[in-house]
Specification:
The chain is about 75% helix and about 0% strand. It is mainly α. The two termini are about 15 Å apart. Helix 2 runs parallel beside helix 7 and helix 5 packs antiparallel against helix 6.
Length: about 190
Amino acid sequence: MEPFEYVVVLTSLILGLGIAQILTNVADMLSHLRHIKLSLPHSLLVVCIFFLHIQEWWINYQYSHTVQQWTLYIVLSILTYPILLFMLARMLFPTGIRGDETDLEAYFDDQWRWLYGLVLGTVFISIWQNSYIQGLELMSSWPQFTFGAVFTAFLLIKQPPQWAHTLLQVLFILSMVAYIILEDTVLMAPK
């Protein structure tokens, strides 16, 4: 087994757990739709976090070509992003003592700072991985810097209106769609 294969198994497990969290909770919501008060910003954020999981799974394959020497430090750096995504997936829906909560609008209003803070953490990790692990120029991470500035601005606002959250999520989704359309990375066999 190659070192990359060894590492990608663990990252795939963590990402798979996050995707399972999202899909399970969406299925639970759909099966109890009559009893749940949905929130548009929350629903759009669920879509965003789901796509971030898929995007991370796709991007992880590039490490087979960019990482020459696998150290524990590099592995831990790579694992940080999927771990934050899993935490986001877990925190997107009411669980534990809040597990019976059915008002997702109230839940989102209560949790958006924590969720956006974790998203901001993924932005910083992404910039770090781009520059340190992949050796890219810092300015090539301008999309991450832009999202980092926007999420930081949201965190500094006392209580942004619902339409602002919705607009943020729509822009987030549109940027991911643009990335999918413009990105021409293909999967290739490892070296």
